[in-house]
Amino acid sequence: MSISAVSSREFYVGVDVGGSKVAVLVSDDQGREQGRYVAPTRLDSSRGTLEGIVDAIHTALRVAQADLEDVAAIGLGIPGRVEPEEGIVHLAVNLSWQNMPVGQILQEALGTPCWLENDVRAAALGLQRHPLYAQVQNLAYISIGTGISAGLILNGRLYRGAHGMAGEIGHMMMLRDGPRCQCGSRGCLEALASGPAIARRGEAILQTGVKTILSEWKPVTTRSVFQAAEAGDAIAQAILQEVGRYLGQALQQMVMAYDVEHIVLGGGVASAGASLLDYVLTDIKHQREASSLAKEMLQPEMFHMQPQNYEAGLWGAVVLAENGLHTMQPLTI
Ligand SMILES: [Zn+2]
């Protein structure tokens, strides 16, 4: 696809595909929102999920009073392992997609170029377009939810690594011989600080018979651990202090590995408990007190929660549509 071939088309469509909903945003060539639509994700079959996405795109275009002929390209953020160059989704567990040529199928159904990227990486691209981060060349977006992963912007571009696995920090080993992770290893960040890990920790402590208001919630959820901590429960606070320590350790490693200017936290756990950042910052403070290098490199103002009311994933999908593979590969001059 050459850019000049599509210059007469003035709309870009971004799609954030989630396990429960599909959000579509139609943007014009000035980056202004022209329409949007959100639909529940169809999970009846892998093809049904794709049909649901196509329907949602059509509806969003009707809202924007546009049609497919006006669309230059479509970008999609997918919760899974994606091969952007080939448009293949290797694995998206929540959508039951395995080695699906999603890009090709959608392109045939819609007659418009479709670009795919992992949803967390798409969100990192979306942050780059937010006024707070527009000038930032080195940034990490960390999604903390059922899993943990990062989208990395390095030297102003999305960094994917040799196998598209850059940013899979959920499987950085934090505690050798720690709890078992889904990947088969032990002590991964994801096994210690993800949403399910926090809930599991709460349940396990409850089983010991210790006195905690967590017993009022059955089963214990991530949100209930945050609620109990906010209500002053010392056990719930201790769980979150520990989570803050593991995340603080992971952020320190990110800063030391990549020298990023900002790290932005998002995802389900981050939105379940806004106090998560406080627990992380407490750990960062301890690291700064212990080392002059940490004091220099880990500035508290580097760490943010995702901007409220800003759909980074959805805007990142629009960026994908605008730039196609140029978001991933250095431009050749
Ligand atoms: Zn793992």
Mean pLDDT: 92
Q: How many separate domains?
A: 2
Overall spatial form: globular
Beta-strand fraction estimate: 15-25%
In order across it, which strands form the biggest sheet?
3-2-1-4-8
* Uncertain segments: 1-7, 328-333
Structural category is: alpha/beta
The largest sheet is: 5 strands, mixed
Summarize the helix and strand pattern as letters: EEEHEEEEHEHEEEHHHHEHHHEH
CATH class of the largest domain: Alpha Beta
Helices, by number, come to: 11
CATH homologous superfamily annotation of the largest domain: ATPase, nucleotide binding domain
Helix % is: 25-40%
Please describe the topology of this protein:
Elements: E1 11-17, E2 21-28, E3 33-40, H1 46-63, E4 71-78, E5 81-83, E6 88-92, E7 97-100, H2 102-110, E8 114-118, H3 119-128, E9 139-144, E10 148-154, E11 157-159, H4 189-193, H5 195-207, H6 222-230, H7 234-258, E12 262-266, H8 268-272, H9 276-290, H10 292-297, E13 303-305, H11 312-323
Parallel strand pairs: 1-4, 4-8, 9-12, 12-13
Antiparallel strand pairs: 1-2, 2-3, 5-6, 6-7, 9-10, 10-11
Helix pairs in contact: 3-11, 5-6, 5-7, 6-7, 7-9
The structure holds zinc ion.
